[in-house]
Amino acid sequence: MARAPHEVRTMNAALELRGIEKRFGATRVLRGVDLRVEKVERHALIGPNGAGKSTLFDLVSGRARSDEGRIVADGTDINGQPPPRVSRVLARSFQTTSVFGALSVLDNLHCAMLGAASSRYIDRWLPSRKTNERAQALLDAIGLAAHADEPAARLAYAEQRALDLGIALATDTPLILLDEPTAGMNRAEASRALALIRATTESRALLVIEHDMDAVFGLADRISMLAQVAACLAALRERGIAMLLIEERLTIARMLDARVAVMGQGAIRFDGAMETLRQDAAVTRQWLSVGGSADSG
Fold first, then answer.
1. How far apart are CA 209 and CA 230, in angstroms?
2. What is the pTM of this model?
3. 147 & 206 share domain
4. CATH value at residue 220
5. What share of the chain is helix, strand, coil (3-state, %, to 5)?
């Protein structure tokens, strides 16, 4: 049964960021970011290139450490923890495929399952009947059962991206981070990929970076926007809050039914219902008007 958007709040979040700050030298990339992803929620993070989305993913997945703040995943503070420890509570895919090309499709899933195992003994590295059965079930779910014994390098690009998703699912973590899962796909491939993501992540929390707005609206329960407010949202005053100018080459005219968070230069400026944002003149003047905030450029 399809879940209703926004009816996902639980006692504990799948992911909660509190006061996250990140600097590279003198450049302040993220400013006091607070972000919450509920359990069993699909949350999209959108914005132009260079806005800090992948940096945020790096912090959450343990590939980098924030300068300030807390990162709590499934009730565990993971800020500054190494990736192997972070991988116990979340899995991440990248903008490019990260499959083991020389291994079979099935063995790619075995590696993901065994790497996530908690046992310290040698049998953790030996596929059991249970892991074999689960891997086969995953192959069926991602549509690659017919390619089980083929080297992953022989798969088409869209099939490799499906395998990436399967690898993330194989870890059995409550939270999955997907970095541009439809990048490089044509419209038909992207549509199939989104259907696959929806079908296989019903019981997980999902945080997705995506530039394809059709994908965002087709997938997300909730949307957060990471952008330089003056540069990317100045057109809102002329064309209405429902239009997002994400990049110069991408203009979307569509109503946002989801809850929305507006972020400027790494800081969240507004978090609430889209209708509230449209009707609140003080909010729009302060955060969405050029010169409305010292940080909004």
1. 21
2. 0.71
3. no
4. 3.40.50.300
5. 35, 25, 40
- Burial (Cβ within 10 Å: 0-12, 13-18, ≥19) of residue 129: exposed
213 shares a domain with 117: no
Together in a domain, 85 and 210: yes
Is residue 50 a contact partner of residue 232, using CB atoms and an 8 Å limit? no
Domain count across the chain: 2
Give residue-wise pLDDT tens across range 142-198. 999 999 999 999 999 999 999 999 998 888 889 999 998 888 888 888 888 888 888
> Tell me: the pLDDT tens digits for 236-263?
444 444 444 333 333 333 333 445 555 5
Q: Give the neighbor-by-neighbor strand order of the sheet with 175-179.
A: 90-92, 175-179, 205-209, 42-46, 222-227, 259-264, 267-272
Angle at 246 between CA 54 and CA 278, to 5 degrees: 115
Q: What's the number of CA atoms in the CB half-sphere (13 Å) around residue 97?
A: 20
pLDDT at 276 over 70: no
Longest CA pairwise span in the chain (Å): 64
Say yes or no: 56 and 127 in one domain: no
| Torsion on CA atoms 51, 53, 59, 65, rounded to nearest 10 | -10
Domain identity same for 39 and 130: no
Domain of 123, in residue numbers: 100-154
